[in-house]
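Schema walkthrough. Field components (list of strings):
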Amino acid sequence: MRRNNKSNLIGVGVFFLLCAGLLQRLAIYPTWTRDYNKSRTQINTSLDPQQMMFALAGFREMLAGILWVRADAFFDTGNYDAILPIIRLVTLLDPQQIDVYATGMWHIGYNFTDEEQRSDRRYIPSALALGKEGCRQNPETYEMFFETGWMWYHKIDDDYPEAVKYFIEAQQRPDMIPARKNLLMMAYQRNFQIDDALNMGFKLYDDALKRVEEDGASGNKQNRDTLENNIDTMLVRMVQRGYVAEKAGRSTAKYDISPPFDVGFSAKVTVLEPMVLRVEGTWNVRPVGTRVRIVLRDKDYTVVDHGVTKNIGRPAGMDWDFSNDVNLDPPRDKTFMQDQLFVKNTRFNKKIDMSKDPPMYPFTSDKYLIEFYYNPRSAPPHIQDKFGWNGEGMTDKHFLNDKVRPGQKCIYYAMEVPRDAILLHGQYQDKHPVFKTPNYVETKQDYNQDQILLDIPSLRASGK
Amino acid sequence: MRQILSIATTTVGEAIRRRVLLIILLIGVLFLVVAPGLGVLSARSETVVLRGMMLGIIQLTSAVIAIVLTVYMIPNEIERRTIYTILSKPVQRWQFLIGKYLGAVFSLGLMMALMTAVLVFVFWLQASDQSLAAVGAMVKAPTMYFVQMSLLAAVAIFFSTFVAPLVNFFLTGGMYLLGSLFNPFFQTLQENQGTHPVTKAFAGIVNTILPNFANYNVQNPIINPTQVIQNESRYYLEVTFYGLFYIGILLVAGILIFDRREV
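Field assembly_structure (string):
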């Protein structure tokens, strides 16, 4: 080949390289990342080389499916720990397998419990991170948005703005099941967005009417009737709870929320044995249905996220949403116990035994907080009828608080407890340390659950 | 041009007669036929698994055929000394190389067309949606795989001008594996805030310069049809041009090396 031809060829080669490079960088790569990448977003966990070989060979869906069948066998045998890595692997191999994200999220959030069926809430940030990843990987469908919203609404049962946010996202997807849309109306109420809830109710009702016109199937009719009923109930509550009067600028003095009811909260915690507590106290609400939340957690609930130490503890909870990484190994050195104290006959009395589950309650720190928290937004409707959606009809001489959840009225009290007291070590050995609210009054009446005599008020006007 | 076509036609004939290629092809076709039966192993929607698996079989089989077909092409001619007969005629070395490459691509095209026909037929028998659009959508991925395999064949031809077949087999296979990882790897580096800027820049250069096979892995929206794709035709056109440019680069480099080589 002549020297001249060689130079021409080299020139052509360089030109082709330039064209290919520019095409790759400016046009192909951005489109590929957006539309053709199996994982829509970066996943901060890699596959091991063998799995990568399978993935490269193009059998991701098949492999993911087989693994998921294997996980099913573990579900049957109750080997929950074995399921976690499979869930992660399947979601890495096949991020469009929504069932795995949804089931995995539920599994992580709900199934890890102690002997007394209390959830291990240290896993909840992982469950949420999995849900968020599922949303990012499958933005076209409503399912993961709905599931993540449900986790906030039902499991965390606090921070309702998050539930509303995800339910709205789910609502915007065309494949959202009509009956599931109703849940946004409920989430709006818990988030004290009453007007939005009512508007949503009417919108859903209009849609339901159209569906019945198009197809008179019983499911469509049932949904229409449910919505009609929900709207009726809500309108009545808006009036009874003084919401309408307040919106109109009138006095709410004659409505059910007035005058605010003093719940008279007090509590006492006795350490009976190492890691075994007796929690008792008062709550002046006579009808059943009140559940006061109790949390026992590290005073400094710190975790390491991307090499940064973060204190994610917050009153009666934690920053559930602190990470986007799916870390299936919760902070093993942290303790976070959450339970509900059921009020019966104006008192609560519960034995909380953590001694059978040391891995879940390691008690490695020096200081702990025992927190009591009552949020009227989570209360059942018959109690909200008195307290209002946002605690307007509720008060307490000592523990009413609007700081721990800004914009919301709640009852909150925290007591600091040293580790030695919970484990009955050191100075607490052979003792039963007691921690109580300053207003707690000892009583000689035995309120053990079995001996309570229910005093049910008569519904007759005479009261007899 | 006549010389190139003549070499290409001969190469196609040789390729079709090679038993090892036919056996690989047969295995691929067999897997395609039994693929619907394997779907029951998975909890995932059978259609999704079937689509993924069949496209995976075509891609894997085609890659093996492309490499095996091409790595021996030029070394065999030299070893059997048939190249002297060819080059003693009015045939330039570059014509020989391009003819060989085109022959390989034609053979590959024939074999992939056969596998695609089997894929379409099996999918048509199995799928609940037997519309022309649904079945037609399945052909998109093999079309892109054909460009991918043509690029792979060009890589193998380039290496075959200066390395032994066995080394070439691993080099080309390695390039294919790496090239298939470039985009996800590059994306991970770019999005990871902890990555050093120098590493990011280096990854950017590698992703821009070396042949990127991941661009042709367009199967995901075909397997999961709910995904919304913008400007599909434009993307296909862009990656086809990218492939042609890169094949051009590799052939030019191959010609330059082969021209200096003593045979």
